[in-house]
Amino acid sequence: MTWRNILRAGWIALFFTLAALAVAKLNLFGLEAASGERADDVAQRLGIVGYPYRNHDPDHPREESRPGQDRVRVIYIDDPGLEALKSDWGGWPPGYQNLALMIQDVATAPGVQPARAVFVDLEITGENLTPQSEGEFTDLIDALAQLTRAERSGEPGWGDVPECRHDALTKLACMVEWGGVPVILASGEGYSPAPFNPAKPRGETPRERLEAVALLAPILVDVRAYSLVSRRRAPDPEPGSVAAAPSEDYDLYPAAAMYAVDCLVRAAKIGRDVCGVPAIEKARTAALALRRHRQPPAEMPVWSDVEASWKRPAAVIWSQDASPRQNQLWAQTSENFQPNCKTTRSLSDHFDQAFGTRGAVAGAGQACIYTLSLGYDRIVEGLGLSRERDYPDLLGDKLVLIGVYFRGSDWVPTPLHGALPGVQYHAMALDNLLELGRSYRRNEGNGLGRGDLFASGMTFLLLFGVNLASIEKRHITGRGRRFKPLVAAAWYSALAVIIVAVLAFFMLVTGELWRSVIVNWIGILATAFAAAWFTARNDISGDLAGWMNRSRAGRAVVGAVSAFDRSLSASSEQDKE
What is the average per-residue pLDDT within 473-493? Predict the structure, then answer.
């Protein structure tokens, strides 16, 4: 091995690494995106991207062993539950009055500490109101106003303070500061602060009336990139006028809004910042000033503040380590309970989890869901539930998400659980934020990020080794000499094993990086093996021909192949003439 050979191998590896990076960024035919998604799915199934794991700021130690699983709950409505509620609801949709009762049941269950926050994954529009539904819609608005403390008997609520509607974070901070239960409602459009009118503080349109008492959050998120915030588009300029400056308004998506509430509640308990997100702390300071002094603060959160912490969408990490209470709760509240999922314990379970059937029809082949979940009808009936133990564990001071489990609704594919209802996607994104905080795993998109740098570094290292091995093999065998069959097989097998082993080793020692960005290890392996074949293709064919020439039958096969190759070359020359 000489320095000349080392430099030669390095230059070749660098060239092909840069070429591979360019092809990956171009995403030709969608191959890079598809292989990246598959690589992430398999990595999560094999436990390479282990979750949950310790990755916390030492200044902010965790309060529980698993913050997300301890604080997040999903309350759902499924087909059997809807049938059980049919006598009260009459069918689907339930009507505004029943929606108000459901939110109140979850947010303020009798004898239980109020929920920390509630997200309703049902889009409420208030459109096409009839005289009867107008009254029910007003009842819903009244219930939300009391829950969030937009209105309070005997003193002004945050709804009477115009600055509390300045932006989404300040609105949530005001709900917490006034002692309310923040309610986040699903919306196809997101938050849009309406001008405050003292004569009509609740607004005029149904949407304005909802925004006056709750936070509206957009729910349309990519299954591979969960958006946390988005900048609101500036109004279109009128003909002949100058275009408006980019809007400083922003939307909070459900997971980010619920996480912000958790940070605000915890900070209120100890009197200082606990999450390290400057925009949340700025909103808390603003709400304190508005409550105590009734004066607007000097600074309030704007787009640039939230962008600094949450610009990149989250690449949600799923977990197969289900809540130990899940099957117990289902068994308590159901007759003839049979679990339709399984926990991953043995080596065979891990193998099946990694390579078994996936999809909504896989049934018991899926891992159990991570977030503790229970049907709303079970909570209403209370059958099998203990008021002293189960209700506080389900609802008391929890971040509760309400959604539907109907087939044909917004189900999303997951790497561990097949298809799940969209509310579980919001819950897992929230869990990631609670567990990881500012270190949540980011989807870097088409930009050049840490995942690309790591992948390029690994690709260069593997290509360098492949090229150096090819150069050294030629140096060892010399001109015109070939490896014996067994030696050649051992050489190429060892090269393949080394490629896989080196990548596996770096996957283990750089685990923290894999948990913060998506790494396309399938693309890395494919590039390394393609380079190995490209550099050794002549040697492989030569080794194979040399081995076959040792026997009469082998020489006959080699002669036939050579004759066929010569005939093809002759035909090509004739076509050119």
Answer: 65
